[in-house]
Amino acid sequence: MEKNLLKEKLEKRPSKTELIELNILNNLNVAPSLQQVTTSLQKSIVQDTLKHAINDRPGQEHLLNQNILHYANISPAIQSASDSLEKEKKNDSLRKSILERPNKSELIDQNILQRTNVAPSLQSTKNSLEKCILQDSMKKLTNERPEKEDLINQNILLNTNIAPALQKTAIELEKSLKNDSISKCLLKRQNAVVTNEIQ
User: Biological process GO annotation list (predicted)?
Assistant: First the structure.
C-alpha cells in the first residue's frame, strides 16, 4: 500500500520545466555556481526597468490635461460623484442657454437670418447666385462708365493736374474769369446799342 501511495505521489509531482516556470528551481541550463549571479542580475534588470518606468511616468498635471485624472484636489473616492455633478451643471447651463436663445424673428431683425421664402437647404445657393448677379452688374457698370477726360469736361471730376489743396481755389478763379468775360461782353453789347441809338 505504501508503494502505491509513493507511486501516486511520484506521478502527481510537477516536472522540472514546471518547477523552473514557477521559479522553484533555477534554470538548469546555467551552471550551479552561476545560478545565484544570474538570479541577482535578473532582479537588478527588473528593478532598473521599474525605476525607469516610475521616473518616466507622466505627472499629475499631464494626466489632468489628458483628462485621465479629473481633479487634483478631490479624493478619488468622491470623484465619480463630482463628475456626475459637473455633468449635471453643464446640462443645466445648456438647457438655460437653449431657453434664452433668440427666436427666428429676433434673428431676422438682427440681420443674422434673412427673411426669405427659399428653403433653408437652398439658402446658400440663393446667396451665391445673388452675389454672382451683383458682380456681373458691377462689371457691366465699370465697363460702361465714362472716361476720366469726359468727367473733367462735364465738371463732375476735378482737374487732376492741380494739387487737391488748390482745386477749390482754381474752381473759384475759373468762375470769376467766366463772370468777368460775360460782364465784359454784356458791357460791350450795351455800349454798341447806346452808340447806335445816338447816331
Answer: positive regulation of transcription by RNA polymerase II
Specify whether 147 is located in the same domain as 167.
Answer: no
Residue 16: half-sphere exposure toward Cβ, Cα within 13 Å: 4
Is there a contact between 108 and 115 (Cβ–Cβ < 8 Å)? yes
pLDDT at 161 over 90: no
The two most distant CA atoms of the chain are separated, in Å, by: 181
Closest CA to 171 of 184, 185, 159: 159
What are the distances in angstroms from CA 155 to CA 24, 122, 142?
A: 112, 47, 20
> Do 19 and 13 meet the contact criterion of CB atoms below 8 Å apart?
no
Residue type, 177: L
In the prediction, which pLDDT does 128 show? 92
175 within a domain of the structure (yes/no): yes
Same domain (yes/no): 58, 18? yes
Give the residue-averaged pLDDT of 68-86: 78
What does the alpha-carbon distance between residue 176 and residue 174 come to, in Å, rounded to a whole number? 6
Of the three residues 73, 94, 111, the one that is the final residue of a domain is: 73
Is pLDDT of 23 > 80?
no
Residue range of the domain that includes 173: 160-199
Which is more confidently placed, 4 or 87? Answer: 87
